[in-house]
Amino acid sequence: MIVTEVRALFNQLIDEGTISFVDDADARSALKRAYKTFRRVVTDSDSWFYATTVDLTVAGSTYNLATGAVTVLGASPTATRLMKLLLIEVINSAGTSVGWLRPADQLEDIIVPWTTASLQFIGTYALRNTTLHFSNSYTGTLRLHYVPDSTVNWALDGVADTQFIDDVPDDLQELIAYIAYTDYYAQRDGNPAIGIFERRRSLEGALRAHISGRHGSGAGVRDTFFGGW
Hints:
Blueprint: H1 3-14, H2 24-45, E1 52-64, E2 82-91, E3 97-103, E4 114-115, E5 120-128, E6 131-148, H3 170-189, H4 194-213, H5 218-226
Parallel strand pairs: 3-5
Antiparallel strand pairs: 1-6, 2-3, 2-6, 4-5, 5-6
């Protein structure tokens, strides 16, 4: 779906004859927040659904994600804002992956490298506030795999606008409008429609089932093996 279609569905759900109660700014804010909730439902089922990458040039045993040459945190990140760190990959001078860094639960848990038969872990990392701490000193490229923040512009809801949302099937993206109704409009309206709450629960269950079933059992196994932050 596109933003215009989700906005139209939201307008139908609230069934307001005037914009005095819910104006454009209210509706766009509600849908923006609803989409964040929608994305959390998706990533709860498959952390890698929205995953993207960014390369960092590192020299040392730490890297500040808010002040480095490439940033994903802070006031104005140079790449899409990081919401969840999934994996750090070590890239050699030829641009080839040579292994991964494992996450440490605590800074004190950063340990020496170890390997498995199929994958090589060549170090560990811990993210504290905006700084990545590594078990080794690196000079070169580290590739972050992470869940980014949304870049959807919910103000592009006019008839001629074509703002794409994401690759979740259209019928399941209807959930965004239902979340906006139940989490925002219903609280202001004071007379919520019970059927809309039931429809939200049904759509959310269908979304979780769809995302979980896209890779069979592979997504869950991968999330468990690689960990993440």
